[in-house]
Structure formats: structure tokens, C-alpha cells
Amino acid sequence: DAMVIQNPRYQVTQFGKPVTLSCSQTLNHNVMYWYQQKSSQAPKLLFHYYDKDFNNEADTPDNFQSRRPNTSFCFLDIRSPGLGDAAMYLCATSRDGEREEYFGPGTRLTVT
Amino acid sequence: AQKITQTQPGMFVQEKEAVTLDCTYDTSDQSYGLFWYKQPSSGEMIFLIYQGSYDEQNATEGRYSLNFQKARKSANLVISASQLGDSAMYFCAMRERSFNKFYFGSGTKLNVKP
After folding, report:
1. DSSP B20-88
2. C-beta atoms of A45 and B102 within 8 A
3. Does B64 touch chain A (CB under 8 A)?
């Protein structure tokens, strides 16, 4: 089935140790999004790619970076995770930024 | 101003009864889309229903319907015949044509009681 896949589902990292979360999609959608979601809160958009164009939200910390090497894959890099970065990270895709976004199952990040 | 407002942090409903989750929105765009997502405790966001701003009919998808009142800027989700599996967090979201991103509400946690 076409879908959005996130690996790993659970990630534990140490304070300050770089970590990379990955997202892949078989939908051939040209737009990919990364969201951070903390407990009992709405997802917060960090950035998105429209094709190869990177769009950063104004309040996304510099600690968060992203790469999209091709249409199917997108990575979220956290350069120096702090305790406040512990959250669920959701990847989503859409076709041309229209209609619904399709979400992956998320990666739950723990920072020790 | 908040783009999407969900005023019900939590709701209870008896199994097999209908429930309405409220959502109001704020936009000056003429073209926009309204969405509802369900998020179970597992964390995945599941798309439920979509309503376009130019759609004259209220959207329906199985047991889900969207009560779209454009003049009041409301897009309430109605779940008929609630099931225990409907217990989850529900998010209302909007996409404006001029901006390529979602605005999410704060969510409503629905608990279905047996």
C-alpha cells in the first residue's frame, strides 16, 4: 500500500548528541512536511519542502535542519537535542499543498 | 488571532450516540479547505473528512459529517453512532489557498463510554 513511513518509531538520544529521523513516502507527493508535537498539543509545523524548495517556519530553532535528497525521502536532523526537544515528530506529505496531508505514524523522541 | 479554535478540550459521549465536536475558523481568503483528523493514543494522524470553501453540500464520510456554516465560520464534526474505537484526540485544521500549510486547532479529546 502507498504510505508514509517513518523510522525509527521510537528514538532515544542523549542530551547534545545529534540525531536524525527519517521519512519516506510511496505516494509520489511533491510536498513533505515535518511537525513537532508535544503531549496534548497540536502539531507544530517546523518546515516543509515544496519540491526541492525548503520553507522554514520563522520560529523553528536553528538546531533543527532538514534534507530532502529525492522526492521519496526527507530527513530531520536535530544537531544538539535538548530536553525540551523530546516530542513526537510527524512527517506528512501532500500533492501540491492541496487537500489533505497524509501523515506517517510518527517518531517518538526521548532525550536523556 | 487564532486561525482555528476548538473550545472543547474534552468530551464524553455514550456509545451508539451522536456527538458534535466544535470548530470555528478565521480567514479572509475566499478559497480554503477545512479538515478533521483523528489521533489515537498510538500517535498517527488519520484524515477523516474535508470541506472546501466553495462546496455547497456538507461533506460526509461514513459516520462522519461536517456541519459547514460559512457565514458563522464554523466547521463542526458530527460523529454518528459512536463506537469505543472513536475515543481519540480530534483536530480541526484549515488550509488557505494563499499559504501552503495547515493551521491546526488545539484539539478535542473524545471519550466514548460503554
Report:
1. EE--EE----SSEEEEEEEE-TT---EEEEEEETT--SPPEETTEEEEEETTTTEEEEEE-S--GGG-E
2. yes
3. no
